[in-house]
Design a protein that fits this description.
about 290 residues, alpha+beta, Alpha-lytic protease prodomain-like, Alpha-Beta Plaits, four-stranded mixed beta sheet, binds zinc ion
Length: about 290
Amino acid sequence: MAAGSIAVGLLVLALKVTAWWVTGSAALFSDAAESTVNVAAAIVALLALRFAAQPADANHPYGHDKAEFFAAVIEGSMIVLAAALIAEQAWQTFLHPEPLQHPLPGVVLNAGSSVINLAWSRMLLRSGTKLRSPTLMADGKHLLSDVVTSVGVLIGVGLVLLTGLPWLDPAVAVLAASYVLASGILVIKGSVGGLMDAAPAGEIVDRIRTIVGEQAQGAIEAHDLRTRHAGRLTFLEFHLVVPGAMAVQDAHAICDRIEAALKAEMDGLMITIHVEPEGKAKHHGVLVL
Ligand code: ZN
Ligand code: ZN
């Protein structure tokens, strides 16, 4: 499926570059630049998914899941670069406007590439739903949004042809550049949190606290609860205060009970619990009766 996406991406890219080539349109250039990034991003995503799926080893004892965040930041940076290239092309076209050459074949080629994109995105969304794959769904939605921008670009080129106003072409390209820039920043923002060990969503942390509270009978309190996530894994650690005279075996049984309850409800949890005697109690954090 991923290899298919790359093949379709290359075909669409060839059509869009040709469309730009025959017309010299800045708007059609913006569409081709976006497609170039899509193909590069698909290749990076494929490599990252393969790397992230490798089991933990001596070099990376916490696993390789963060490769996905890395890939997303690289993709986002490429998208931002594409936006800069589009803006530059729009500026040049604005300074030296020229009537579009061979607009009709350009529009037909670009429209044809959008039809291919639309068909492939529907195929991705269908198998993504069937296989419950977030990656395939994300790919499909991304391609669908490309179809929407391409339609916008085609409308812009059509307006240039109808009105004969040359500045409309770079204006459409600038609109496309802003859209591409915004989506690039969103992609980067979504992954920097993961690289910086941001906490998962508040509801998830609240649910973890509730489960710990429910399952910790026999312990005095839990504190210093911290979570971070890497790809599909969530790392959780906290201190569990128990009576100092409690047998290690009994304290460990409490830990096992908490871990089992958490893992029953949440996928990909990696839990570390540090057991302490009552003298270490802080009396804040999650209090346990
Ligand atoms: Zn402590
Ligand atoms: Zn254990």
